Task: structure prediction
Amino acid sequence: MDQVTLVALIGVVGTVIASLAGVVGAVRTAGISARAQATVEDVKSRRAAYSACAATLLVQRDAALRLMDVLNVPDLDVDRAKERVAQAQALHDDVGTTVGAVAVEGPEGVSDAAISAAQRLSAWLDELAWWLELGRPHHQRQIVVELRDHAEEKVERFTAACREALHPDDGRQRRLGPLKRLSLRWYIRRHGGPYGWPGWS
Result:
């Protein structure tokens, strides 16, 4: 094989290798892009599930808070109060659906926090219903207050877990505070006073 032929073959091989490298690079780049796109879609899906669940939990929490105000009046319309209890408890069906979506999306810490918040809210509402059935005995008021506090804490833990899962790099800057402050300001504007309900705490 003469030198010219050898040089030509080397040139062909070099071209093939360069082309192959280009193909491999393109495939690798496409794979990276696909994974990046999948990651973005995963984040969007989780954000939607977390937001829906947080919204239903907060709606039920606020319904229970208003129910406590309704039940804490001397001249209570018992039949109307029972209707309000049933309405608040009916919201739990929506909570169950959104908690299920969070359980599918994960991760486990967020899923567990959602389930715990839903369970605490349900226990609080059940105790309010039972307290009303018993005639609102004074000795059980503290149980209702404790269940309220536990439920609110679990809801806050869930929202904190969501923020940490969605924003792992700045989780420390997003702890509990903002949502709680917004909820408090909303309640003050709507009811004219902070959580506490005269006679409850």
Q: What stands out?
A: Residues 6-10, 192-198 have pLDDT under 50 and may be disordered. The chain has six helices and no strands. Helices lie at 3-71, 78-90, 92-105, 108-133, 141-166, 177-191.
